[in-house]
Design goal:
rod-shaped; mainly alpha; about 80% helix; about 100 residues
């Protein structure tokens, strides 16, 4: 049934009215549950976004530190670490963009 019934569409029988109210109550409860699930998913995505931002800051700082350490010495290990951190940082930026699209 539609959410809003016109007065002329309402049944005259009390038992039918009770059944109609019960059905609408169940529909409202289901919609509230669905709404809550969407809110929880939204909150989880916001938390992931926040965590990603913190990880991006951490990796950026570490990358800057490694670049400063690299200045004056050409260590293959440091170059490898820098490359790995750059890849992680790029992946986080991509993941954050994908999650941002889900939130919108």
């Amino acid at each position: 049934m539609t959410a809003m019934l016109k007065r002329a569409q309402l049944p005259d029988n009390i038992d039918a009215l009770k059944a109609l109210l019960s059905a609408q109550g169940a529909q409202i409860a289901a919609l509230k549950e669905e709404n809550q699930a969407w809110r929880q998913e939204r909150d989880a995505l916001h938390q992931q976004k926040h965590d990603d931002k913190q990880e991006i800051v951490r990796l950026s700082l570490l990358l800057d530190k490694l670049r400063r350490m690299l200045f004056g010495q050409k260590s293959e290990k440091l170059i490898h670490q820098i490359d790995q951190l750059q890849l992680e940082l790029e992946e986080l930026h991509i993941n954050q963009g994908e999650r941002a699209q889900k939130v919108e």
